[in-house]
Design a protein that fits this description.
Elements (H helix, E strand, L loop, with lengths): L15 H14 L8 E2 L2 H8 L3 H13 L3 E4 L3 E4 L4 E4 L6 H5 L6 E12 L2 H6 L7 E11 L2 E11 H5 L11 H8 L4 E12 L2 H7 L6 E11 L4 E10 L3 E4 L4 H10 L1
Parallel strand pairs: 4-11
Antiparallel strand pairs: 1-3, 2-3, 5-6, 6-7, 7-10, 8-9, 9-10
Length: 257
């Protein structure tokens, strides 16, 4: 690391602790500070950035709130192995959901091709068996670590608009809505656990046979027409799906029936 990595803009309207937080965040995300490695102490960072320990502590507190670091009393501060989470109580793409928590989400497109719809895909999308659909496979990275494999099936007409779209940095949901004018309504999900086959193990950097979470998601337009059928495979050690269940609402429903 160069000394210039720790130079701050003294005349910037951005507070010093915010500048330090972003420098350290970038060091964590680009691997300069590897997962589970020790971060320099407050005193060491103060010398590097030429600021007080109080300013350093403010930056570290923010990083800890974001889940990027953790502290062990008497031993120091360490880089977390990030475990991102997505709340499934609302219909959002992965990047759309995680960006507000400071996570960096990117994708690697493994394939995009058209083929006859497999029986289950045709059934879910209300197509004739063998009708052409697009199959899009992407590996999704959170904070530059592979977290999931996404296999998306779309009717040929809808998929044509994705051929030149930015599938590396954008969610398919946002492209369908903002670029292609589709109004998404709701999605049906089913979740189970499977073992990683050789392909999934290779791209997710896990052992063959390791448990992974599989989500089957069918997204509909506002009028109920199915549009997007997906298999989402998530590493269990790097991702969580969260759902809030309201008992009071269930109780009211029983009372009204």
């Amino acid at each position: 690391m160069k000394n210039s990595d720790y130079q701050l803009a003294a005349l910037s309207p951005v507070p010093l602790y915010s500048q330090i937080r972003e420098v350290l965040r970038n060091h964590i995300l680009n691997g300069t500070y590897a997962p589970l490695s020790r971060v320099p102490s407050e005193s060491e960072l103060g010398e590097l950035f030429k600021v007080s320990r109080i300013t350093i502590r403010q930056a570290l507190n923010d990083l800890q709130k974001d889940g990027l670091i953790f502290r062990i009393p008497g031993k120091g501060t360490y880089v977390s192995k990030p475990k991102a989470f997505q709340n499934v109580s609302s219909l959002q793409g992965l990047a759309e959901s995680l960006a507000r928590f400071g996570h960096e989400v990117t994708n690697r497109v493994r394939s995009f091709h058209y083929a006859p719809a497999p029986p289950l895909v045709a059934e879910r999308l209300h197509l004739s068996e063998g009708e052409q659909v697009a199959e899009i496979k992407r590996v999704r990275y959170v904070n530059r670590e592979p977290v999931s494999v996404e296999v998306t099936y779309l009717p040929e007409e809808a998929a044509k608009g994705l051929e030149k779209a930015d599938l590396i940095t954008r969610d398919i949901f946002l492209i369908l809505e903002n670029d292609l004018g589709y109004s998404l309504g709701h999605a049906d999900l089913s979740i189970d656990a499977v073992q990683a086959n050789e392909e999934l193990a290779t791209v997710l950097n896990i052992a063959i046979g390791a448990p992974i979470m599989r989500i089957e998601r069918l997204t509909h337009l506002e009028d109920g027409t199915p549009l997007d059928f997906e298999y989402l495979y998530y590493r269990g050690d790097a991702f969580q799906y969260r759902l809030r269940i309201d008992r009071q609402r269930a109780e009211r429903g029983r009372q009204d029936s």
